[in-house]
Amino acid sequence: MCATDAKHIDIALQGGGAHGALAWGMLDRLLEDERLSIRGISGTSAGAVNAVVLADGFARGGGRAGARRALATFWRALSHAARLSPFQRTPLDHLMGRWTLDSSPAYAFFQMATSMVSPYEFNPFNINPLRSLLAELIDFERVRACDELGLFISATNVRTGRARIFRRHELDIDKVMASASLPQLFQAVEIDGEAYWDGGYMGNPVLFPLIDESCPRDLVIIQINPVVRNELPRTAAEIANRLNEITFNASLVREISSILLLKRLIDEENQAHVRFADTRLHRISADDAVLQLSVSSKLNAAWDFLSYLHDVGYAAADGWIERNFKLVGRRSTIEAGPVCGPGPEPEPEPDADGGPARAAPARRNPARHRDR
What we know:
Blueprint: E1 7-13, H1 20-32, E2 36-44, H2 46-81, H3 91-96, H4 105-114, H5 119-122, H6 129-137, H7 140-144, E3 150-157, E4 163-167, H8 173-179, E5 189-191, E6 194-197, H9 208-214, E7 218-223, H10 236-268, E8 280-285, H11 287-290, H12 303-324, H13 336-340, E9 348-349, E10 358-359, H14 366-371
Parallel strand pairs: 1-2, 1-7, 2-3, 7-8
Antiparallel strand pairs: 3-4, 3-6, 5-6, 9-10
Helix pairs in contact: 1-2, 1-12, 2-6
């Protein structure tokens, strides 16, 4: 996906159910800007779906425009299929302009049912509308032949608890379904005798395959799950929502923290020759909007909601480009604080005169201070 004098970027796409439409909007804006050239993509769950849809659209011969059309077609088709879903907003939610499904009787029943029965019991035939949709829209042979893009899709091996990375040349519908197989909703996907669940548990998304094999100079992380939520969750729905955010951000937070630590050590040891010494990290998110949403809205595939998420994502990417385009190719724009959260609590220091320990003064966060 190259253009003359374009700045090359790789993209890591986080998953999050229907919230993947945020990433659709962000990708739409990045693809629109011909000053940026996407070379590699990693994706998990909804991020994996966005990745293969983009690659298929690009490989059809339409280039950037084809990729944008394919993404729009997929999300429109998903909303059309979801019209028959029992997960719908109530009339009051529509009236109040809420995107949540927390008041939906079907969602309440689903929450209760999944705590008592498994997908092997309530869905013995393993019906998944997403599989039918991908089979209808995606030519995986064409995706595998798309040499212009590197693709990396992650799934979680149920037996070993480790991430499995599927590369472009081995992608098929089962690999993508494995990446998006939430165990509360669907049976595990079996590949080569191994069972797989949603990739978000161990890599959401994975970064190191891009760094190790694509060797990006600039890696853009599209993050749709907020890391920091200042309000203490008190209701059952709020607690479930926060647990979902923490669970599906944990692997990304660890990976970014490791990369930032390694880069700092490389700088301190003056080891500029190390493979990813000059890899620059960037992040696009829409935290302010996502903080207003509940975990139940990840099952809301109504077109008006998906369109709203697309527009929010598009605006977030547009703002990121306006603020940071000149810095792409020069330095990282990611801020560790918003991504990895505040550091550990300071260790207590013994008093000089042997008195009780007192907390060490907290170090000022330069990034946070700068934003005030």
